[in-house]
């Protein structure tokens, strides 16, 4: 149960249950009608996870939905236990007439997603402590090197990662957003961005990521788990 899973294996194991793989985690949403119902859903989800809840589950409770994230927090990765918990949670929701779903093609404001901030830097080890301090961030579990990403310890803000620059680029923005979406949401999200006045800068690394820009050249990447080195 503690074996770390690759992207393809994790996605295949839960996609039909309404979960999506995003940045080493599983995420889904349960629609509810009130904050009271949301807290009841959260309680059922915790009960379904049992003693594994604290080490694997995060729940964002809102009046209209409960967003659930699964990850083995001690290693910031997915294991077979997370897959098992996803199936148990989905079954618990079906038992009370609710669904775990990624909000793709449902009329929801947006799908489940995760956002990262990417900072281009010449000396990552030198700038990383500043951003860690000013954001109140910490090291991600198992990633405390001088060039590793930093994360919000309470999970409210986007993670920040650092991209190595080979030479200064004063004529180009050096901070951009990475919007990690479900692999089956990416085409719709890209189309929406282009319709809203954006332009496609590069698709050379698709389906891992597409580089988009607004009318003034400010960039954002739509990313998925697909098309990357490991399975």
Automatic annotation (TrEMBL):
Its EC number is 4.2.1.96. Keywords: Lyase. Residues 117-223 form the Glyoxalase-like domain. It catalyses: (4aS,6R)-4a-hydroxy-L-erythro-5,6,7,8-tetrahydrobiopterin = (6R)-L-erythro-6,7-dihydrobiopterin + H2O. PANTHER family: CONSERVED PROTEIN (PTHR35908:SF1), HYPOTHETICAL FUSION PROTEIN (PTHR35908). Belongs to the pterin-4-alpha-carbinolamine dehydratase family. This is Putative pterin-4-alpha-carbinolamine dehydratase. The lineage of its organism: Bacteria, Bacillati, Actinomycetota, Actinomycetes, Micromonosporales.
């Amino acid at each position: 149960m503690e074996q770390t899973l690759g992207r393809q294996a994790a996605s295949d194991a839960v996609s039909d249950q309404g979960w999506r793989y995003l940045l080493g985690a599983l995420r889904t949403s349960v629609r509810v009608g009130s904050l009271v119902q949301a807290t009841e859903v959260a309680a059922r989800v915790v009960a379904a996870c049992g003693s594994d809840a604290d080490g694997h589950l995060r729940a964002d409770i809102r009046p209209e939905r409960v967003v659930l994230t699964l990850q083995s927090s001690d290693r910031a990765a997915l294991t077979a236990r997370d897959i098992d918990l996803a199936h148990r949670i989905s079954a618990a929701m079906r038992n009370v007439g609710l669904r775990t779903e990624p909000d793709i093609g449902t009329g929801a404001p947006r799908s489940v997603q995760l956002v990262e901030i990417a900072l281009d830097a010449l000396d990552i080890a030198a700038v990383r402590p500043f951003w860690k301090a000013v954001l109140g961030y910490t090291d991600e579990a198992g990633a405390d090197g001088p060039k590793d990403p930093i994360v919000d310890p309470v999970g409210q803000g986007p993670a920040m990662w650092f991209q190595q620059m080979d030479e200064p680029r004063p004529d180009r923005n050096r901070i951009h957003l990475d919007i990690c979406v479900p692999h089956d949401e990416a085409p719709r999200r890209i189309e929406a961005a282009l319709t809203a006045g954006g332009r496609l800068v590069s698709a050379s690394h698709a389906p891992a990521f597409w580089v988009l820009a607004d009318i003034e050249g400010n960039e954002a990447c739509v990313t998925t788990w697909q098309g990357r080195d490991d399975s």
